[in-house]
Every structure is written in C-alpha cells, then in structure tokens.
Amino acid sequence: MSFTVAIVGRPNVGKSTLFNRLVGKRLALVDDRPGVTRDLREGEARLAGLRFTVIDTAGLEDATDDSLQGRMRRLTERAVRMADACLFLVDARAGITPLDRELAQMLRRAEADVILVANKAEGAAGEAGALEAYELGLGEPIRISAEHGEGMGDLAAALHPLI
Ligand code: GDP
Ligand code: MG
C-alpha cells in the first residue's frame, strides 16, 4: 500500500486548496468505501518527485459551533488512523485559535508523524501567525501558500525522510 498522508486542521485553513494542488485531477474513486466518501477525500499526490496517497478531511464546513469540536475530533482521529503521516494545517493569517490548540493536543499523542504547516504564509501578513504556531509544541512550522504554490519544496523536504 502506498504511503498515506492526511491533511488535517480546523475548517478554512486551506486543507482542500492544498489537496487540490497536490492531486490535480488524479482523484481516486472511493465511492464504494462506505463512510469514507463524504467526509474524507482520497487522491494520488505528486509533490516534487514524491508520490503518496493524500486524504483531505472535509465535511466540517456545515457544522454548527457546538457540534464542530466533537465532529472535528472524530473525523481527524479517523483520518489519522488511516495515515502514516499528517500535515497539520494552521492559518498563518488568522493566527492560532482554541480549536487549533485542541487538535494539536490530540496530534501530539498520535502514532502518525505530524508535520506542522503554516498555510496562507505568502507575503508578510503570515509571519506573526507562523511564529505563534511554535507554541503548539509540534516543532517549526513549514510556511507555505497552498493557493500560490509557495513552500512546496520545503513541504517535500519535510515529507521526504518519512516516505
Ligand atoms: P479548508 O476548509 O481547510 O478545506 O479550506 P479551503 O481550502 O476551503 O480554503 C479556505 C479559504 O482559504 C478559501 O477562501 C481559500 O481560497 C483560502 N486559502 C487557501 N489557501 C490559501 C493561501 O495559501 N493563501 C491565502 N491567502 N488564502 C488561502
Ligand atoms: Mg475543505
């Protein structure tokens, strides 16, 4: 089976934007896998010569505030169990939120390797948020811009030793 990377993080940090950049049109057909299709999307990623299976955790966008935390935790746990490594995305522009801290606490206990990624880090606006991300206790954040394709080489370099 191919090395599997889950993209996790609270809603709106840019998980799907990164997934789409990594996968392009190579979306896997997962329609015959019950329970997986709606909340978890799977595809074959290519990143600077690396190939791996990538999972996007979706399905949280429509959650109300009081159901978000529990759903996020369950969905993230499910994705992490399927994965060899996780890309934990935070939003460098919005900064670190209580939901980010809760997810970080969960991920620090996970079996999978966790790579902390500060997305939306293009330009200067993301620098404060990227620095704030150090406090999550998951090492130095890899600064990327999923939308503009920046930092993809650094992301590949972080994943390479794990694959
Ligand atoms: P998800 O909910 O985590 O899957 O987040 P999405 O991928 O749907 O992105 C949420 C919003 O952030 C969208 O409006 C994206 O266009 C925007 N976004 C994603 N990546 C970047 C980025 O690198 N920089 C900026 N400035 N915006 C981004
Ligand atoms: Mg999404």
Automatic annotation (TrEMBL):
It comes from Meinhardsimonia xiamenensis. Transmembrane segments: none annotated. The chain holds residues 1 to 163 of 488 of the full protein. Associates with the 50S ribosomal subunit. Belongs to the TRAFAC class TrmE-Era-EngA-EngB-Septin-like GTPase superfamily. EngA (Der) GTPase family. GTPase that plays an essential role in the late steps of ribosome biogenesis. The gene is der. Residues 3-163 form the EngA-type G domain. GTP 1 binds at residues 9-16, 56-60, 119-122. This is GTPase Der.
